[in-house]
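My main concern about presentation is that the manuscript never shows what a single data entry looks like. For the editor and my fellow referees, an illustration may be useful. For illustration, here is how one protein appears when written out as sequence plus structure tokens:

***
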Amino acid sequence: MNRKNNGEALSAQNFAEKPAASGRHLGVGSATRRNLHAKRDRGFTTADLIVLSLLAERPMHGYQANVELERREIHDWAPVTPSQVYYSLEKLERAGLLRRLESGALSEKPEPATFETTEKGREALADTLEHEEWTTQREHPAFLIWLALSWQARPGVFRKQLRKRRKFLHEELAREKKTLTSIYEEVGHKFHEAAWMVSLMIAQLRTEILWNKRLDRDLKRRAVALYPFSEGLPK
């Protein structure tokens, strides 16, 4: 199983990639007016949220957390690096949202610190997941930026890039299908956050593949604008 663990999946509900991509931090605390200032002062990064959720499953030290996130293929849906995980562990412990556990074992070699999420940390994460920002933001894929600028490309480049994109999408679709099968096998059913998250990725890939094929067919009909944008510019 490559990505998710039964009962341990980092769900699409819990962590949307968009807030990290936007560069905005999500505050924590209740939604009451008196706490708005506190929410602005104490911001969560995507890495903070993922660490809080992961360590709520079971205690881990930093290396274990990074290995588990790699196993779950974190980079497919959240831009979190190992160094960010270690930084979040220190930050969240200082804030009282993580608790350091005592090993109790005598050893000549110092053991890495193991952490678990506190009740305060679970409450803070739950509060953050109620924010409207999770549901009202859009991604800014690199391909859309390329598409907007593509009229400046040299002859023949557009179709080449379009087909390269389609090849990549097919490869990703095949990979996500395998991941979904492994989730079904490990979780035991289809009604789980991990399965829903990967199913959404598959649906998005399929939609873009169909769009890509249509565009490839329609490319010969590309024409200049009937009403140039410059006519609407202020004098």
Remarks:
- Confidence is low (pLDDT under 50) at residues 1-41.
- The longest helix spans residues 157-187.
- The radius of gyration is 22 Å.
